[in-house]
Amino acid sequence: MSQGTKQFILYCLLALSLFSSAASAEGIKIQSAELERVDSDWLLNATFKIDLTPGLEDAVQKGVVLFFQAEFDLTRSRWYWFDEKATLAQRQTRLSYQPLTQQYRIASEGFSFSAKTIFEALQAVGSIGGWRVIDNNQIDPSKSYTAALRMTLDLSKLPKPFQVNALNNRDWNVSSDWLRFPFSSNGPNLIKK
What is the biggest distance separating any 2 CA atoms in the chain, rounded to whole angstroms? Predict the structure, then answer.
């Protein structure tokens, strides 16, 4: 192999690694999750870091409303059958841009918030506090469970033309990985990434 070919391959690999590291910076990542017991309920506090692709940021600026869905489930493993789903909770947060006031609007379950920058808006979308996910009557204290948490961009809520685009474009499929951790009704349930 000639010296020029080796340099060309080296440059291609370098460019590819830079591209992949930039692409991996975009998306949703779970930073922390905590389940705390309050009376007979378990409340979830979680923080997600959300980085939108330039295409998604542009779409929001042009009036496309984004819906982010947080999902929490609690399962118990069974050796003789499928896992038992003790609870499943979903929460939707809406992100929109208001061009007249030049502010971002965040709305979720009766809570609404305005932000001046996309960074502040995404921080608000990614902050979950006091979300009731488990009723103590749904679980057996003598059994062990696995809790799972994730957040996704709900593509089904996009306008139809954008849904078609989202199916063909990886930049629109924004989702965190599932964070799975053991849950015990007797112990602390704090996860930090």
Answer: 72
Q: How many CB atoms lie within 10 A of CB 43?
A: 17
Burial string for 126-153 (b: 16+ CB within 10 Å, else e) reads: bebeebebbeeeebeeeeebebbbbbeb
Distance CA 32, CA 49 (A): 10
What would the two tokens of residue 69 be?
């869905």
Locate the domains of the chain by residue range. 26-192
The structure tokens listed for 34 are: 């905590």
Residue type at 142 in one-letter notation? S
Q: What global pTM score does this model have?
A: 0.79
pLDDT digits (tens, 9 = 90+) for 56-79: 899 899 999 999 999 999 998 877
The number of CA neighbours under 13 Å toward the Cβ of 80 is 0
